[in-house]
Amino acid sequence: MRYYFFELLACPECKSDDLILHELDVKEDKVDLDVEKIKCKEKCSYQRKPANEVSLDVCRKCVNLDVIDGVIICKNCGRWYPIIDGIPRMLNDKYRKYHEDVEFLKKYLNKIPSNIKSLMKIPELNEK
């Protein structure tokens, strides 16, 4: 998932666009794109600041970065969504694959910082 796609996402459950991106694996993949056309409009997920505060030089680096694995957390409702093999798995609860979520957590739970874990709506995590 490219960083510049992130600002287009919204939580499928509560429809909020107040999302947090936490990258677990990022790869560089050179692409030839017109940075001025795809530059983020409102918020830069790569720099985590308003897009108007980010230089085009930073954008030129960002367009070549691909988030392979990560987690997206909705700050409004606490739901979390894995990014697996570059694809955000942002599905309504009734369509989520429980076994896929469990495998993702087994693989990455120790790599997710506690401040991010505390935002994730996972009853077993938040009871500890």
Structural class: alpha+beta
Order of helices and strands: HEHEEHEEEHHH
Give the CA-CA distance, first to last residue: 31 Å
The number of distinct helices, counting runs of at least 4 residues, comes to: 6
Which blocks of ≥5 consecutive residues have pLDDT under 50? none
Kindly state the percentage of residues in helix.
25-40%
> Which oligomeric state applies?
single chain
Question: How confident is the prediction overall: mean pLDDT?
Answer: 90
Number of strands: 6
Strand content: 15-25%
Question: If you had to describe this structure to a student in words, what would you say it looks like?
Answer:
The protein is an alpha+beta fold and 128 residues long. Helices cover 27% and strands 24% of the residues. A 4-stranded antiparallel beta sheet has the order 1-4-5-6, with helices on one face. Strand 2 and strand 3 form a beta hairpin. The model has no long low-confidence stretch (mean pLDDT 90).
